[in-house]
Write a structure and sequence with these properties.
alpha/beta, Rossmann fold, 2 domains, ten-stranded mixed beta sheet
């Protein structure tokens, strides 16, 4: 599927770095940008709070709403100057609702951009990724600081283990991989059992991709005791990849965010842009 609308989540207090990344990506592929400017609302005071606490809460709320309105105007001016199609909305959810708000907007976008500023925002990062990845059925594009992302990659590493999440990621990235110079299907310590990757690990996904006109190489790598995420990232650097495509593993519990070790390692320290789907 070709990406026609990208979503960017922006904290009301952050600068324009993530926005510039999102604008650049939309300009590259002629996509519309959906921006959601967010401030987290504090719960109103209840119970035995000092006199005047309610007035302070109202004043802070009014300040937040004014800041949201001002930031929306700034972003509308920025996107208009860039000459891209864009919609800009503001949201003021309580912390417990934030991920659901992200998920709702992500459902109506083709991918959510998780930029470097959002990655560095410890109060919003996990909930934003959880909402975009687990509540939308759409992929996320992780962009680490200092790396220029592209949605027209020349070289792609597809991290593969024959799982459902990997399959979904490959399907979401077909249009990206079809224009790439080369795609490296990368397996680390592959399971060659009949319920794993089979006796020829990577052969079936390579055949599938080849039928879509994609130029494929299968790379089976030993971990040597190193973390799988580190092996994948090193290999992506070795083959000069512009993008890693992988499945996102994990599940939500009531108010916890739990990821598999490979996914968490990639999210905690991405070395290059990563397209992740689940």
């Amino acid at each position: 599927m070709t990406f026609k609308r990208l979503l960017s989540i922006v904290d009301v207090r952050q600068d324009d770095e993530d926005l510039k990344t999102a604008i650049s990506l939309c300009a590259e592929i002629e996509a519309q940008l959906s921006v959601v400017v967010v401030a987290i609302a504090q719960l109103p005071p209840m119970g035995a709070y000092p006199v005047g606490t309610g007035d302070i809460w109202v004043a802070e709320r009014n300040e937040d709403l004014a800041a949201l309105g001002k930031r929306v105007e700034e972003i509308e001016a920025l996107t208009a100057k860039a000459g891209i199609s864009a919609t800009v909305n503001d949201e003021y959810p309580e912390a417990a609702r934030f991920r659901h708000v992200v998920g709702r907007y992500a459902r109506y976008s083709d991918a959510t951009i998780i930029g470097s500023d959002l990655l560095g925002n410890e109060s919003l990062k996990a909930e934003a990724i959880e909402g975009a990845l687990f509540e939308s059925g759409k992929p996320i594009l992780i962009v680490p600081r200092g790396r220029k992302p592209t949605l027209r990659p020349r070289s792609v590493v597809l991290a593969w283990d024959s799982g459902l999440e990997c399959t979904r990621a490959a399907r979401e990235a077909l249009h990206l991989m079809s224009d790439a110079r080369d795609v490296h299907v990368t397996l680390v310590d592959p399971d060659t059992s009949s319920i794993g990757n089979g006796p020829e690990p990577g052969a079936e996904i390579a055949s599938y991709l080849a039928h879509h006109g994609i130029r494929v190489a299968v790379d089976c790598l030993p971990s040597g005791g190193d973390a799988i995420a580190d092996v994948i990232k090193r290999h992506a650097t070795d083959v000069a990849a512009d993008l890693i495509v992988m499945g996102g593993y994990g599940h939500s519990r009531i108010r916890e965010w739990v990821f598999g070790s490979v996914t968490k390692s990639i999210l905690d320290d991405p070395s290059m842009p990563v397209l992740m789907a689940r």
